[in-house]
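One-letter codes give the sequence; the fold follows as tokens. Both lines appear below.
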Amino acid sequence: MHKSQNVENKTVLVEEVVRDFDKNEVFEEITAKFTWEQDVERSWNLLVENNGILQHVSQENLEEKGKQKYKKNQVCALRKGIFRHIIILFDMSSSMKERDFKPDRINVVLECVENFLTHFFFKNPVGHVGVVALKNSSAKLIQPLTSNMEDITNALLKERSMGLQGSPSLQQGLEIAHDLLIDIPLYGTKEILIMYGSIRTCDKKNILNILNLIVKNNMHVNCVSIAPEMHILKHICEQTNGSYKICMTKNSLMNEMNNITETPLWMMGMEPQLIHICFPIKKKISTQIMCSCHNNLNTDTYICNFCNSYTCKIPSKCKVCGMHLISMHDLSHITNNLQGSPLFLEIKNEEKGPRVCVSCNKRLYDKVSQCSKCGNLFCLACDLYIHEDLNQCPFCLIQDT
């Protein structure tokens, strides 16, 4: 009797499960999106060229491959150019209206440039950036060399609001960049970054003439493009020992620009010099005082120790005496970048059970990063954070103390 009741109960439960499953299938069919309503997958972005063959890779492998693009083998202190001077040639022609990047090219590139500036000034506190806009078959300086990120972003947004028109002129843009960098002291780098989205350039003169001057004065040109390859851009980058990268996704564009934020090695033509720097005093004044950098009225200001002029933000360069104004925090970032990165070795987890990251307690299964000095194990995320931000193993510091 009990067995027959149990069998009946089981059949009822099975029927209920099947009925619920059918209801879920009907609901999914009703709520399913049409093809034109679904999100864009852009599966072609996961194609990677390997020995002339396009291969499809998963998104996880693509992200993991991108995370490993940093220098693990720099175990000694190297001579670097910490006083960086970069002129950005920004394409603001009609080609930046294209919508192959969502919502459009100009918004994606502006977002990536803002992210680039954040990382650049974090790793290079005494660096300077200027911007030249390329449009209407000409070039225009919209922001001179400065270390103020807000001034740069405001200049870009203001120029964008005036419209994207015409064709870019590489020749005129390179001439303006050359004239700005020619007077840079020999201890500073002279770099040009081209943000390009067109497949043409409209020049009034021979671009090879200005290229010869750039090579003669030891300037380096890097180009990050979201358009098909142009021979002249590739030729310019090769002649100046720079890099020419073509990006098809927003993530690749951001990664390539972040690679440029790394402090470069000592370049040809640079000479070491002793320079004066100041640690200005921050003071809050009851009355408003005009700063020497923007001619704005402020109550919070920094006072230069050399000429007693007022500056609203640091790090910067004093407009009156030309002294470099930095803080102790900025100086620590500079010395940190000059140190050698800790050497981590990638090993396989040979134990049966999972290991644990010593930093975040995350379980480690296949790939494990091990510090060659202290022997501790790290996950890929902590490994990346140590090499890109800390630049030193925290557990090695604990052992040293």
Residues 71-75 have pLDDT under 50 and may be disordered.
